[in-house]
Design brief:
The protein is an alpha+beta fold. It has one domain (about 5-125). Helices cover about 40% and strands about 15% of the residues. The protein has helices at about 25-35, 60-65, 80-85, 95-100, 105-120, 120-125, and strands spanning about 5, 15-20, 40-45, 70, 75-80. The longest helix has 13 residues, at about 25-35.
Length: about 140
């Protein structure tokens, strides 16, 4: 099992860095924001990472390749492992966290995540995302 990296950031809440120029990524963050009922996770585009005072725990290249989850306790998780962390912090994503905790699951989850991440802009176009896909939760009367 891959040990999480450590960071030296002073965070009061967990931080999720994502590609703000990717429509699919932006849409996912909108959805995660809606599901984060207890407002436990800050979501920031990686393009704002310099203002977050990131240290040597991650490089700009790594940030561009995968989503990164910075725990307020000091650990860094990326890619599919970042989604496992989300699963344990957002109640409706608990099943995802449990699935991603199955021993050996990352032999499957990591290649799938990498496949999608490398093609995220193509997937955005296929899904019809322009800028960002608008997720609307308007109630119908």
């Amino acid at each position: 099992m891959q040990a999480p990296r450590k960071h030296n950031l002073k965070l009061s809440r967990d931080l999720l860095l994502y590609d703000g120029e990717c429509p699919m990524c932006t849409t996912q963050m909108q959805l995660i924001g809606r599901l984060d009922w207890f407002d436990r996770i800050d979501r920031k585009p990686l393009q704002q990472a310099d203002s977050e005072g990131l240290d040597a725990a991650v490089t700009r290249q790594q940030l561009q390749e995968e989503i990164h989850f910075f725990s307020h306790k000091g650990s860094v998780h990326r890619g599919a492992r970042a989604f496992r962390q989300l699963g344990f912090r957002i109640p409706l994503l608990l099943p995802l966290g449990l699935i991603l905790s199955i021993p050996g699951i990352f032999y499957v989850a990591d290649p799938i995540y990498t496949f999608v991440a490398k093609r995220r802009l193509k997937f955005s176009k296929l899904l019809g995302c322009q800028g960002s896909c608008d997720i609307s939760f308007d109630k119908k009367d």
